[in-house]
């Protein structure tokens, strides 16, 4: 059965299934979801050798115990280790969201933790090409028992916003400051600023409304010697007149520009800004500044690093670190062209002249910023690239959170890094494919940790570097694997094929115009009846009947009824009719009944904000199809019985959440429907009249793809932040 892109096949709900029915190396259960990793990914046929987990947005270290560390995973929630990173425990799987941006421990009460939901690292470099993998939050999570239990606070102020930094008063654990950052995918604008609570998050006041309530507040630091003095960076990634550094000396009662620091109005080259201060010299601060975008030639690269030694009265531009990071055989600035996404800064707590700056790689200065050296290239070993959070543990060692997890700098002179990824299962999947007969084989594309291969253990192998999208496994020859991949963000070689189960790969893009506008992760589907027939979308639909050896466009913007010029977001092909294809671009839906010779617009009427993440067609009837919408409000699941001429909203009692994948099991009558939303999996056995959360044990993570193997009766859920989960099912 052919499912649409980002969609999968679904299960039957039946009792009495035994684990031995499926001879998987990791036993599955019929009532509870089982985690299958990656936890973490390990090196396979790639040249990066370190174990990697997934993107960490922020981290916090216990003030007296160097073995206790908390991480805020971008899509995986809060995790804690009590043994220095050997083992980790997820702490927030049942919370309102697992999208994270910031975390802080109260210095005077280490059991009191604040975790900000909503990832703030969104900007032009991620928004382009619809690379929407940075998401909104629901508020601030507060724990008074070391993360064992949580209360959501600030929902009214921070719902669907992002939290870029949290700072807690060192003497009063109930006085906390929260910086609201950049607008994320499906987020809400406004309410930015520095919000303060003096009662542990029950009540909040925005102290910085005079600066801006719309620009992104990108960083916040407190004077280590005076809790009433704080510095905030307003660093809207695309540039804003308010961009600059501001100071308060009265706990946020008033703010003013920090001395002669150039604001965005005076210096339009200010983009995102990061700050650092050391307890060793509280009057010394550093600020790293990215350029905003556009123009494209300068977008989000390093603008400059500035320093003050008089608590922000006067600022000096430091010598530029220059081209210091290795990337694709060349040296580039340490922010590359994504300073809006990966930018963090920290000063050594024992020596203010030692400062660490990180973006695509990490660099260090030991002389107050006059000279710099790269200490973490992330090419073959050491910390993964794309750094987001830096902290120091109780022993004064640097902790680094990045796109591949967490590392500790144990020797800053050599330097020597220790991998702390342990058993972290926080990989952000973008696609998943199951083997047709072997439960111990799967393939998944991930955010910046490559394409990975499951081999029956929680540790998956990396078989390609870079960013991985959708995968497919031939049903005729399971050693043939298809993969959307981006080894380089600018490369047009976005589709690869393997003939040996992923050990080696061939680029297969002949016939695809490299100049076509396209999403960062291109949609593609494999024909259930012919594993050599594939469909792929740029701003045109391409078809191959030769396994990717040659592609032919079957749609052209402005011709044959295809009236959209937007990038294609999802595709589906009818298993019952090779001539029928459904496609969505820019929120509009098109259908062809003659294999692309002509197209009919069959969009869902009346939607204020249409955007579809997945399409699926019933296998026996090309007129019955489903469309899934990944936006708030206005319906999430739609059904047509006449080829898209009319659509019915069957969202019913589904939660008002973006929905990302739909799958159907037509072994049941009527077909069972299953969707993956931003907080898990829901099912309906009555054509969408009612929905319910499916089974227990699955974290409240964003589910981006569902896949069913009907011969093995396995349902798999790919999440964007908590890896892969499976449940054992039986046929109707």
Summarize the structure in words:
This protein starts with 33 loop residues before the first strand and ends with a strand. With 732 residues, it is mainly beta. The chain is 1% helix and 39% strand. The protein has two domains: 19-39 and 425-728, Methylamine Dehydrogenase, Chain H (7 Propeller); 54-419, Methylamine Dehydrogenase, Chain H (7 Propeller), CATH 2.130.10. A five-stranded mixed β-sheet has the order 2-36-35-34-33, with no helix packed on it. Strands 1-59-58-57 form a four-stranded antiparallel β-sheet, with no helix packed on it. It has two helices and 59 strands. Residues 1-20 have low confidence and may be disordered. Strand 29 (387-392) and strand 30 form a beta hairpin.
Can you give me a brief rundown of this structure?
By secondary structure, the chain is mainly β. The chain folds into two domains: 19-39 and 425-728, 7 Propeller (Methylamine Dehydrogenase, Chain H); 54-419, YVTN repeat-like/Quinoprotein amine dehydrogenase (Methylamine Dehydrogenase, Chain H), CATH 2.130.10.10.
What's the tally of helices?
Answer: 2
| Rounded average pLDDT | 94
Beta-strand percent range? 35-45%
- What structural class should be given to the helix and strand makeup? mainly beta
Q: Give Rg in angstroms.
A: 25 Å
Uncertain regions: pLDDT < 50 for 5+ in a row? 1-20
Question: Span between N and C termini?
Answer: 16 Å
CATH H-level superfamily title of the largest domain: YVTN repeat-like/Quinoprotein amine dehydrogenase
Provide the helix percentage. Answer: under 10%
Largest sheet: 5 strands, mixed
Q: State the name of the first-level CATH class of the largest domain.
A: Mainly Beta
Strand order of the largest sheet: 2-36-35-34-33
What name is given to the CATH topology of the largest domain?
Answer: Methylamine Dehydrogenase, Chain H
CATH architect. name of the largest domain? 7 Propeller
Q: Any idea how many domains?
A: 2
Can you count the beta strands? Answer: 59
Question: Outline, from the CA principal axes?
Answer: globular
């Amino acid at each position: 059965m052919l499912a649409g892109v980002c969609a999968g096949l679904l299960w039957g709900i039946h009792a009495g299934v035994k684990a031995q029915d499926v001879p998987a190396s990791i036993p599955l259960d019929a009532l509870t979801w089982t985690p299958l990793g990656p936890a973490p990914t390990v090196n396979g046929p790639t040249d990066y050798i370190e174990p990697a987990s997934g993107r960490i947005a922020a981290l916090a270290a216990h003030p007296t115990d160097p073995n206790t560390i908390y991480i805020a995973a971008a899509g995986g929630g809060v995790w804690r280790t009590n043994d220095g990173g050997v083992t980790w425990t997820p702490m927030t799987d049942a919370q309102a969201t697992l999208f994270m941006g910031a975390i802080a421990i109260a210095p005077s009460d280490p059991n009191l933790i604040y975790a900000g939901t909503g990832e703030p690292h969104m900007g032009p470099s991620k928004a382009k090409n619809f690379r929407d993998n940075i998401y909104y939050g629901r508020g601030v999570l507060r724990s008074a028992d070391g993360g064992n239990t949580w209360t959501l606070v600030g929902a009214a102020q921070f719902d669907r916003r992002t939290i870029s930094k949290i700072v807690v008063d060192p003497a009063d654990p109930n006085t906390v400051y929260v910086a609201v950052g950049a607008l994320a995918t499906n987020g809400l604008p406004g309410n930015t600023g520095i919000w303060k609570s003096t009662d542990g998050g029950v009540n909040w006041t925005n102290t910085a409304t005079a600066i801006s309530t719309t620009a992104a507040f990108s960083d916040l630091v407190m004077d280590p010697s005076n809790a009433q003095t704080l510095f905030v960076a307003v660093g809207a990634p695309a540039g804003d007149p308010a961009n600059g550094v501001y100071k308060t000396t009265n706990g946020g009662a008033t703010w003013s520009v920090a001395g002669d620091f150039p604001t965005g109005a005076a210096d339009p080259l200010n983009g995102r800004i990061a700050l650092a201060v050391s307890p060793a010299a509280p009057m010394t601060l550093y600020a790293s500044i990215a350029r905003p975008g556009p123009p494209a030639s300068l977008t989000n690269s390093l603008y400059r690093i500035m320093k003050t030694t008089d608590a922000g009265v006067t600022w000096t531009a430091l010598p530029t670190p220059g081209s210091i990071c290795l990337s694709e055989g060349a040296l580039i600035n340490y922010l590359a062209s994504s300073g809006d996404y990966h930018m963090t800064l920290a000063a050594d707590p024992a020596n203010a002249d030692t400062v660490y700056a990180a973006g695509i790689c990490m660099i260090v200065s030991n002389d107050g910023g006059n000279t710099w050296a790269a200490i973490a290239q992330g090419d073959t070993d050491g910390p993964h690239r794309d750094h987001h959070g830096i902290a120091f543990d109780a022993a004064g060692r640097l902790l680094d959170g990045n796109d591949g997890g967490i590392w500790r700098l144990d020797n800053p002179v050599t330097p020597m890094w220790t991998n702390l990824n342990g058993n972290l299962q926080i990989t952000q999947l973008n696609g998943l494919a199951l083997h047709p007969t072997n439960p111990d084989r799967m393939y998944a594309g991930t955010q910046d940790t490559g394409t990975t291969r499951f081999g029956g253990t929680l540790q998956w192998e990396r078989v390609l570097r870079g960013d991985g999208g959708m995968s497919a496994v031939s049903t005729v020859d399971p050693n043939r694997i298809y993969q959307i991949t981006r080894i380089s963000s600018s490369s047009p070689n976005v589709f690869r094929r393997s003939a040996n189960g992923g050990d080696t790969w061939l680029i297969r893009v002949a016939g695809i115009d490299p100049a076509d506008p396209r999403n960062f992760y291109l949609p593609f589907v494999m024909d259930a009846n012919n594993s050599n027939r594939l469909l792929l979308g740029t701003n045109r639909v391409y078809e191959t009947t030769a396994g990717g050896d040659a592609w032919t466009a079957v749609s052209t913007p402005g011709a044959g009824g295809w009236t959209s010029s937007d990038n294609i977001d999802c595709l589906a092909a009818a298993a019952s009719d090779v001539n029928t294809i459904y496609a969505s671009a820019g929120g509009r839906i098109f259908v062809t009944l003659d294999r692309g010779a002509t197209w009919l617009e069959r969009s869902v009427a009346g939607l204020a904000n249409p955007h579809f993440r997945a399409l699926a067609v019933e296998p026996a009837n090309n007129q019955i199809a489903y469309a899934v919408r990944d936006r708030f409000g206005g319906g999430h699941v739609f059904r047509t019985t006449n080829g898209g001429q009319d659509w019915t909203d069957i969202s019913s009692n589904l939660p008002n959440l973006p929905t990302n994948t739909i799958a159907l099991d037509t072994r049941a009558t009527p077909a069972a429907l299953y969707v993956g939303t931003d907080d898990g999996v829901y099912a309906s056995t009555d054509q969408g009249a009612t929905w319910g959360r499916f089974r227990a044990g699955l974290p409240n993570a964003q589910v981006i793809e569902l896949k069913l193997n009907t011969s093995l009766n396995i349902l798999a859920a790919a999440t964007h932040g908590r890896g892969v989960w499976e449940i054992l099912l039986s046929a109707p």
